[in-house]
Structure formats: structure tokens, C-alpha cells
Write a structure and sequence with these properties.
By secondary structure, the chain is of the alpha+beta class. It has one domain. The protein is built from 9 helices and 10 strands.
């Protein structure tokens, strides 16, 4: 199973001038949807990318999620700047609001049979490998949820988890049994791509990205199993989050609305795919 050892996922935010939200939406329609389907991915090497908007009256923002093979990113001199500079929307009313050093990937997992097309009703054999896609209504359900951690012990636990993740990425530690349970959950939930990012800007916040066949199926499977990963996550979220219901209850109540979703026609599904990327 592809995990954070083999791929990375990054969130990049841009604050929108409150009086120009519609301007930005029009700009996205003009530049990202239809005219250049690769625009949402931003980088040729990107496997999966999604663009979200938070229409908050006081602090509206765009958030870009992008997934990249770790073998590619590790070869860049300055990965953080490379990704930030590739943000798919460029406009005078947008302003960077995050420091790349404040965001860290904690969890990344990929279903070994996730689709390589975004269009409803089209199978993988219906499309050529040279074809790219972007959609405002992809076949999959795509969500981004913001979860604020309580102060104190929950923040220290997040710091510890970050260190654990870095040990896994470096190969210093393996979590074979945990990954096996996680793979079982991905299969039951029909979760295609899942990432959790820690943000230390203005307190500790977790962002959970989910690309799934159907979000209702995710929650039905999540609560209909004794899988240790599911039950452990439910227990921790209930104790660590200021508002556990934001992620533990369905339908999700999230500030983010999906504007566009794009995938590479040959995006990695298995570890071997990532190794092939490294050879190219």
C-alpha cells in the first residue's frame, strides 16, 4: 500500500480579498476548468489535486491539495517553494497566508485500485494514458475537513505523531501491522486517497483530505467494524478535538467547497508505481 513513505501530500492556502470572492471564482472557471485541465494539478508530476474554497465573510480562502511521489519531491532543491510557486490560481486579490514550515503531513494512504479517471460512468479502459482530466463534479466524493486540536496534551501528542511519521518516512521505523489494518479499512470504506496534515499556524489544526467512492459508504463502514485503526481513531478524535462531530458525524459540516478535482491518468496505485516514477 502506498503510504507517506512513498508519496507526500501538501496543502497550500491563499487568502482572498473579501470583496473579490466572485472575481476569483470567475478566474478559476476561466483558467482551470476546460481550457487547461492540467492547471489544477499545477505540477506535471502531481498525481492528484483538488482546489477548495472557504467562503468565510471575514477571511475567505482558496486551499489547494496536491499529491506527489516522494521520489520526485526528494529530488528538488526546495520542495516547499516549488509546490507553493505552482499554486494554480494567480491573481492580485490573492495573498499567501501560510508558512510551509508550519504544515506537516502526518498520514497518507492510497487504495490499490483507485480510479484513474474523474468522469462518472467511464472506466479506466475508456481513456488513453495521455488524457488528463479536471472536473467540478468528479465521480468520487472529495472532502476537506478542518479539525482544531485542544491545547495542551493533544498538541504534544500531535508533535509526537509527527516525529513518528518522520521515522516511518526515513525507514527508521516500520508499522506493518498498522498499515495492514489501514489497508483493510480503505477497502471496506472504498476510500481512494486519504491524507492528514498538521498545521501549527495560530494553534494546532488538523486537515483531513478524503477522496472516496461515496462518503456515505465511508461512514457506514467506519462504524460497522471493530478494525483497531477505526476504533482507535474514533477514541482519539473524541478526546483530542475541540469539535469531534466535525469529522465523526455524517453528513460532514465543513467550511470547504470543492471547486475542481484533477488526477493524472497514470497516477500511482501501488508501491511499484512509485518506483517506476523514480526510474523515469
Amino acid at each position: 500500500m502506498i503510504t507517506e513513505r512513498h508519496a507526500t501530500a501538501v496543502l497550500v492556502s491563499r487568502r482572498i480579498d473579501p470583496g473579490h470572492v466572485e472575481t476569483i471564482e470567475n478566474e478559476i472557471s476561466r483558467t482551470c476548468l476546460g481550457s487547461d485541465p492540467n492547471r489544477v494539478r499545477g505540477l506535471e508530476e502531481a498525481s492528484t489535486a483538488s482546489l477548495f474554497i472557504d467562503r468565510s465573510e471575514t477571511a475567505p480562502e482558496l486551499v489547494w491539495y496536491v499529491e506527489l511521489p516522494r521520489a520526485v519531491v526528494d529530488g528538488w532543491d526546495d520542495p516547499q517553494s516549488t509546490v507553493a510557486d505552482a499554486f494554480p490560481v494567480d491573481h492580485d486579490v490573492l495573498e499567501p497566508v501560510d508558512d510551509p514550515d508550519e504544515r506537516t503531513l502526518l498520514v497518507h494512504a492510497v487504495h490499490p485500485r483507485r480510479p484513474r479517471t474523474i468522469e462518472p460512468g467511464r472506466s479506466e479502459t475508456d481513456r488513453s494514458l495521455g488524457e488528463s482530466g479536471v472536473s467540478t463534479q468528479p465521480a468520487a466524493d472529495v472532502e476537506l475537513v478542518r479539525m482544531r486540536l485542544k491545547s495542551g496534551l493533544p498538541e504534544r501528542l500531535a508533535d509526537w505523531f509527527e516525529r513518528l511519521t518522520q521515522q516511518v518516512i526515513s525507514g527508521e521505523r516500520t508499522l506493518d501491522r498498522l498499515e495492514s489494518w489501514s489497508a483493510e479499512m480503505l477497502e471496506q470504506e472504498r476510500m481512494y486517497t486519504e491524507s492528514i496534515v498538521l498545521d501549527r499556524h495560530n494553534g494546532y489544526t488538523l486537515y483531513q483530505y478524503m477522496e472516496a467512492d461515496e462518503m456515505q459508504q465511508v461512514y457506514d463502514a467506519y462504524y460497522d467494524t471493530w478494525n483497531p485503526v477505526a476504533r482507535g481513531a474514533e477514541h482519539l478524535m473524541g478526546r483530542l478535538l475541540e469539535n469531534p462531530a466535525c469529522i465523526l458525524e455524517y453528513p460532514l459540516e465543513t467550511e470547504f467547497e470543492l471547486l475542481a478535482h484533477a488526477i493524472a491518468p497514470d497516477r500511482p496505485r501501488r508501491v511499484g508505481d512509485c518506483l517506476e516514477t523514480e526510474k523515469r
